[in-house]
Every structure is written in C-alpha cells, then in structure tokens.
Design a protein that fits this description.
Blueprint lengths: L3 H31 L5 H8 L2 H15 L8 H26 L6 H29 L8 E6 L3 H13 L4 E7 L9 E2 L2 E5 L4 H7 L4 E4 L9 H10 L3 E4 L10 E7 L2 E7 L5 H36 L5 E7 L5 E7 L6 H8 L20 H8 L7 H7 L3 E3 L4 E2 H5 L15 E3 L12 H14 L2 H17 L5
Parallel strand pairs: 1-2, 1-5, 2-4, 5-6, 11-13
Antiparallel strand pairs: 3-4, 6-8, 7-8, 9-10, 9-12
Helix pairs in contact: 1-2, 1-3, 1-5, 3-4, 4-5, 9-11, 9-12
Amino acid sequence: MLISKTAHLRRLLQALDTMIGTLAYSVTVDFFWLAGWIGLDQVRSHLLLTPLVIICCIVSSAAVKPRLHGESFTRLLLFSLRFTLMVLAGMLTVIYFSQLGLVDLTVVSSFAGLLFVGLLSNRLILRWWYFHNRREHPSNYLKILVVGAGDRAQKLMEQYRSESDWGIDIIGILDPDPALTGTLVSGTTVLGDAKAIRKLLANEVVDEVIVCLPRSLIDGIDEIVEACEEEAVCIKLLADICDLPKGSLTLETVGNLPLLSVAPVAHDEWKLVIKRMVDLLIAIPAVLLLLPLFAIVALAIRLDSPGPVFFAQARVGLNKRIFKMIKFRSMYVDAEKRLADIEHLNEADGPIFKMASDPRVTRVGRFIRRSSIDELPQLLNVLLGHMSLVGPRPMSLRDVNLFSRGIQRRRFSVRPGLACLREVSGRSKLPFEQWLELDLKYIDEWSLWLDLKILLKILPSVIKGEGAS
C-alpha cells in the first residue's frame, strides 16, 4: 500500500491474528480439560502443538495479506474462513504424519470454530473503530506535495485519495509551467514552479514529495532531490530519474503505476516497533516509581519561587511536528522575556543558548539541572509518543530557525529522545557543530544495540553530572 501507517496496521493485524489463534487454542484445550472430556495426558499432547499453532497462524496471515480498508462483510467472512482452513490444514497434516495418537480431533475442530469467530469479530471491531468511531486529527494527516500537474499526476492523486486507509492532505502542486500557478488541478492549488520547493519545504509540514514528471520536462531535478534529503522528506519518483541519494529505496505501486520511494533514513520498521515497545516498557514503570520524587521536587519548586511546577516549551519533533516538551521549571516565570537582555552573554557555539551562571535559574533549578531531575517529566512525552528514550534532543523553534545548514534538518527524520550520543560524549561541553555531527551519526548508524549502549552509559554520566547545565 501507499502509506507507512497502512503498513503498520497490516503488521498489527498479523500480530493480532497470531495472538487470537494462540488464545483460541489455549481456551479450547482448557475448556475440554475442565469439562472432563480429555485427560491430563491429552492436555500435555495438545499443549505440545502450541508452537505449531503459532507457526500456522503466522504463515496463514502472511499468505492472505490482511487489510481493513474497503473490505465488505463478505470479504472479511471469506478472509476468516480462508485463514481458519489454512491453519486447520497445517495442523491436521502435521498430526497425521507425526501420528500423535493422544490428540483429539474434536478439540482441533472446536478450536477451528472458535478461531473463525475470533478472527471475524476482531476484524469487525477494528473496522468499526478505525473507520467509523475513530477520526484522525487533520494535523496528523499525511502531507503530500506533488511536482507535476499532468494527467499522470492527476491520476496518481486520485489513487492516493481512494486507496489511503488514513487521512491524507495533498497540500499543493509545483509545476514547471508558470501559467498554471494559482490554478486548481484536481481540486489542489498549483503553488508555483519546481524552484519554489526549498522555501516550501522549509516553511510547511511536508511528509512526502512526489515527482510526476518525465525527466525531459523538468529542470533542476537534482535540486529537488537535494532539498528533500536536507529536509528529511521522503521523495517518490514517478519517472525515469536516476542518481538517487542514499537511503531506503523501495518500489511501490499505485494502481498500475510504479513509484520509487527514497526515504531519507534507512530504518527497519519492525525495529522501530521494538524500539517503541522498549520505550513503553521502561517509561511506564519509571513514571510510577518516580511519582514520590516528582511530588518532592514539585513542592520544592513551589516553595522556592512563585509559578507553575512544570515548564512546557514548543519543540520540533518527528517530521517537524510541534509538541510541548515537559520539564520541571528551573527558571523564574519571566525567563523567556529576559532572554533577549542576556543573549549577548551566550557561551555556546551555534544557535543554542548556554550560560554557566544564568541569572534566570532558581536555587532549586540549579540543583535539578545539575542532577538532570528537571528532564524526568519528559518520560510523559515518551508515553505520549512525542519522544523516545534515545534520539537527538528536541530543539526549540528559535534554535531551529538559526540552523546554518539545511542538512541539519535531517534530525527531524527520527523521533527526538531523552538521551543521545551527545549525552554520553560530554553533554553541554561539546561545541554545537560536534553536537550536530553526533546527531547525524546517530541517525545514519542507528540500531537497537546502539540505543542499548547509550542507555547503559547515560546513567553514570547523569550521576556524575558531566556537562550538565
């Protein structure tokens, strides 16, 4: 399909199919045992088949390619039936050739019936939830910029709108013909020619740029590709274009039209799912364990200076989505207004502001900054999906607007984090350029093992207070 969210949904369906199959089998065996219809020896024989059930479910789900969008009740019924028959055929084949005498075929057939009901019920509930009860917020729609206004581009836009499982927003069209600027093509405004892409990508939220022009009709294709790479925007090419940048290159189809997709960062989606699961498995118990500490710090902040306990600042996150990053307030309430008065005292290189003896920091603020306690509420951002445990630190709008090089915006291709390579390499002692190099190195070399190494190193670094400000 077209959109990464759709791919994630299909993987979720495959995982749920396997879980339903395993649960249905366990429930069936337990029911027959508790009812006294099979003995303990037969229970053990049936339980030995559990790995086989899991394997059959995985293979069956991959074979039938589950989806929800546009599926009628009849098609969902046929899907559940095909899935069940494939699992049943696999089990009966193994049972027959392995001659498992203690396996009761009544149990297996009852499991098949329960599996069918479970699969169909799951599909109907999910379809109702995702496409009737739930509505994606417009700010989270997939934002697409199309380069080209011809017949192929119009056909592609129609296919996107019809085949998308989720919200989609074609924000505009760029075309080499200046006479088309300001006109509507398939209900979308032509914003200018292809040379306007840098300004557009810098000022607007764009998730994908789709080039729908043959090479002979477009000038500056290298500039378009370079602009997308710098801004960490996925580019898809419906043309005979070569010299593609490095990244994750995949071939997709929209109807019968081929698309080459060049993602700015080559990341395995399954590893990203595991990364998110690790975030939740660590963040949820951490927040619960730290609640007493949060209460003590909150009381100290209120007693030390008037104002709220938390400080929420707009930060730039994944794909340039703006979110509120939460910290314990370590400065006086008028700190933002006083920044202009002391900005000439900045001791850091680059756009960031650092000052060893910042007069805006409170007494409690100095302690919680030195110990990094002020950063702990960002675990809530991790739970909300704004941040990850490991990733480049999120930057403020002020800092982002002062970037000197476009390539620095590649940091927006990954989810920002609580800890990064900078945090275990000197923290705020590092010059800004080296900080950016470490962030880009993390993006290019990311792996689950790298995340683990950073997490193992961050605790000693925080305890020692190395480079904290």
